[in-house]
């Protein structure tokens, strides 16, 4: 143990270089016979989404060489950009958003026709059929307007011909064919989001259609056909997303309610939290107290949790008597896992990076529930996952409390994932305490908790992040004079709103592609979220201006800059279609005019979220440098971090 050093300045091997070194974010997992496939985004390759196949003999190969990039822009968040069956691969390439198929020589062959507008026709949620592939097709017009984007379900043949199967709803997803030719899909219309009111529709082989579940006040996700023609799905009619089964005779049964959400919000296509096994059992994942469990449900209704050292499970698939999934935990980055459903062997098919670190460097999360104002929601508590400062080779001066970083997830309909996150450990290993807040409106705690944000975004979330910070300060765990708030996207909005509308609590902030003007967001953003604020804030009239949209104006940080005197770092991608750069530039201009200390980094070529290694590093080191300048501690000299330019100091 070395001599005591101020919090924030502790030397650590968890540098920005380590954060991105050979990093690859696991995106999707698919089982194809005895093979397991997955996709991973690699910052070192410019964020390229690479497809990887692991054969039964253990051989692992990259299927698509550079520059192929299996990534779709449907809904801008993507998902379901590729599918494989019997070794036949279909995928959407990021560069032109066209559909490709691996030909007999192993090379990609373009299938879909060239669109009139570059990348103007996009495909997602792919499923192979005997005569081609089912897909969600998103078509953009020359106007560029969100209102003119058309979503359809189509069948595409290998020769490029296509047939429209579903047209009319504002949004569609999850097209799935049963063994007898029945088609099911999910649909929803503005202003609902899929977690608000998605319907499950079934069309039989003779063309008859019926709504099986969902609608106002009820959301359905992840429909899956059983071999007997029954349809399994997750629905939140009991408050939490629970498992149901619909039978062809029209009956619907509640199969399993575990008292917490099995599903999560459908931000991306092709999510899977349960899988039907060949012997009639069901593998499923669900959350409780901030962590996931993986379990097996018998045909008789017995539920058995598997004893595994992980806290997050996704892309749950069945492979004979085994469960294949993505899994991660507080001390492990995400891996591809194969688990014997009977509780036997566990095999890691795709290991995590070898970080070369003793686990003693990792801060272990604590699930915390704290009191918060009611705000008319009827809910008086919120939740957070707290990561205390952890460094086996450093300590602070006697009596010095650590600075706090309150982290805010995006969405805002989302939640914190307790998988080892080196960005969090980057801060905790330097002496920061980090609290990741699941404010009211977050998912994983049921519909009532999720709906507490309806009409109250910019109120409830602010009260909860403030309450969390004050709870930790009152408990003597953090220094109340050094409390920061950071977040991206919707989390960035909460950062800006907290600093401008709840001044005096935080003494620094970092907004990553955050929202500054709700009216501008409602008017400019992409189709998927173009009516999102109708529920979170209030219906928006694009022709009325700020005076005709008073709630949007009142809750926009850009309209509260007179009380904005907290130092702020702003990070933004130049090609962000979800939160355009104009949002960041508006708040930066206001800070400059007021002389508030601030820093601004704009990353060319980046979209909503940073995927390139050099930009991830610049944003992380820049944020640390910003805190060091604001709070007056020294950066570890060995890392050679160049100070970010802070204007107005």
From TrEMBL:
Signal sequence, renumbered to the chain: none
List residues of the Peptidase S9 prolyl oligopeptidase catalytic domain: 421-631
Name used for this protein in its record: S9 family peptidase
Please report the organism this UniProt entry assigns to the protein: Blastococcus saxobsidens
GO annotation (BP), single: proteolysis
Q: Which InterPro entries match?
A: 6-blade_b-propeller_TolB-like, AB_hydrolase_fold, Peptidase_S9_cat, Peptidase_S9A, Xaa-Pro_dipeptidyl-ppase/CocE
A Gene Ontology molecular function term for this protein is: serine-type endopeptidase activity
């Amino acid at each position: 143990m070395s001599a005591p050093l101020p919090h924030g300045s502790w030397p650590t091997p968890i540098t920005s270089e380590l954060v991105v070194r050979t990093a690859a974010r696991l995106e999707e997992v698919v089982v194809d016979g005895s093979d397991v496939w997955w996709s991973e985004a690699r910052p070192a390759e410019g964020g390229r989404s690479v497809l990887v196949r692991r054969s039964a003999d253990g051989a692992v190969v990259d299927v698509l060489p550079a520059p192929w990039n299996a990534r779709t822009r449907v809904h801008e968040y993507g998902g379901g950009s590729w599918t494989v069956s019997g070794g036949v691969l279909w995928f959407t390439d990021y560069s032109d958003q066209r559909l490709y198929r691996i030909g007999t020589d192993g090379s990609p062959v373009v299938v879909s026709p060239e669109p009139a507008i570059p990348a103007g026709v996009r495909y997602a949620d792919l499923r192979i059929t005997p005569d081609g592939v089912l897909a969600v097709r998103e078509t953009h017009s020359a106007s560029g307007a969100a209102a003119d984007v058309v979503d359809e379900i189509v069948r595409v043949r290998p020769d490029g011909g296509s047939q429209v199967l579903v047209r009319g709803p504002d949004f569609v997803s999850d097209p799935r064919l049963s063994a007898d030719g029945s088609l099911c899909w999910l649909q929803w219309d503005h202003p609902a989001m899929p977690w608000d009111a998605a319907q499950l529709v079934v069309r039989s082989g003779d063309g008859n259609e019926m709504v099986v579940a969902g609608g106002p006040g009820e959301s359905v996700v992840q429909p899956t056909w059983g071999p007997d023609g029954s349809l399994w799905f997750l629905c939140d009619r009991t408050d939490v997303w629970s498992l149901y089964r619909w039978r062809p005779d029209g009956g619907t049964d509640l199969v399993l309610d575990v008292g917490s959400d099995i599903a999560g919000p459908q931000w991306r296509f092709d999510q899977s939290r349960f899988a039907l096994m060949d012997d009639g059992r069901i593998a499923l994942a669900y959350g409780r107290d901030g962590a996931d469990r993986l379990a097996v449900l018998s045909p008789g209704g017995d539920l058995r949790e598997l004893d595994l050292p992980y806290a997050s499970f996704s892309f749950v698939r069945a492979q004979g008597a085994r469960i294949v999934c993505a899994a991660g935990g507080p001390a492990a980055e995400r891996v591809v896992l194969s688990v014997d459903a009977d509780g036997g062997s566990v095999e890691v098919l795709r290991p995590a990076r070898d970080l070369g670190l003793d686990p003693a460097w990792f801060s272990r999360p604590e699930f915390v529930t704290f009191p918060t104002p009611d705000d008319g929601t009827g809910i008086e508590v919120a939740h957070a996952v707290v990561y205390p400062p952890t460094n086996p080779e450093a300590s602070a001066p006697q009596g010095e409390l650590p600075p706090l970083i309150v982290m805010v997830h995006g969405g805002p309909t989302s939640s914190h994932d307790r998988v080892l996150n080196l960005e969090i450990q980057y801060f905790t290993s330097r002496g920061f305490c980090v609290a990741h807040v699941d404010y009211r409106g977050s998912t994983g705690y049921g519909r009532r908790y999720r709906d507490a944000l309806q009409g109250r975004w910019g109120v409830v979330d602010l009260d909860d992040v403030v309450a969390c910070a004050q709870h930790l300060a009152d408990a003597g765990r953090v220094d109340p004079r050094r409390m920061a708030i950071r977040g991206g996207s919707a989390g960035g909005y909460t950062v800006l709103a907290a600093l401008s509308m709840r001044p005096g609590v935080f003494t620094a902030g970092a907004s990553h592609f955050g929202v500054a003007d709700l009216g501008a967001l409602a008017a400019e953003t992409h189709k998927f979220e173009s009516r999102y604020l109708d529920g979170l804030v209030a219906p928006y009239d694009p022709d009325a201006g700020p005076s005709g949209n008073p709630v949007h104006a009142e809750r926009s940080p850009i309209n509260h800059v007179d009380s904005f005197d907290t130092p702020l770092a702003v990070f933004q991608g130049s090609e962000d279609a979800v939160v355009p750069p104009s949002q960041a530039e508006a708040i930066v201009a206001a800070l400059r005019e007021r002389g508030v200390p601030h820093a601004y980094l704009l990353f060319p070529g980046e979209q909503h979220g940073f995927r390139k290694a050099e930009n991830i590093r610049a944003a992380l080191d820049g944020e640390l440098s910003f805190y060091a300048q604001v709070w007056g501690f020294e950066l570890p000299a060995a890392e050679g971090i160049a100070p970010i330019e802070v204007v107005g100091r």
